[in-house]
Specification:
Blueprint lengths: L12 H9 L4 E10 L5 E10 L9 H20 L5
C-alpha cells in the first residue's frame, strides 16, 4: 500500500494561514572563543532568534500568504533586546 504525497497548496487558504501562524521563532546559539595576550580564555555566546524565511522562496502564493505573519513575527523579534 503506497501513500500519495501531500500537496500543501491543496489545503484551503484559511488552513494554510493557520499553519503559517504556528511557525515558531527558533533560537540559535553561537559560542565565540578567544584567548587574550595574557593567555586567559574567554567566551561570548551570541544568541539569535531566527525565522525559517526560506519558506518565503517556495512560491509566490506562499510568499504572499505568509508575509503578514512573518512581518508580525519579525517586528516582535526587533523589539526583543540583544542578548549575549
Amino acid at each position: 500500500m503506497s501513500t500519495q504525497p501531500f500537496c500543501f497548496l491543496d489545503l484551503p487558504a484559511e488552513l494554510r494561514c493557520i499553519v503559517y501562524e504556528h511557525i515558531d521563532i527558533s533560537i540559535h546559539r553561537q559560542v565565540v572563543s578567544s584567548e587574550s595576550v595574557s593567555g586567559k580564555a574567554s567566551q561570548i555566546v551570541l544568541i539569535r532568534r531566527c525565522l525559517p524565511v526560506s519558506l518565503l522562496a517556495a512560491c509566490k502564493l506562499i510568499n504572499h500568504e505568509s508575509m503578514a505573519v512573518f512581518t508580525t513575527k519579525l517586528r516582535e523579534m526587533q523589539n526583543d533586546p540583544l542578548r549575549f
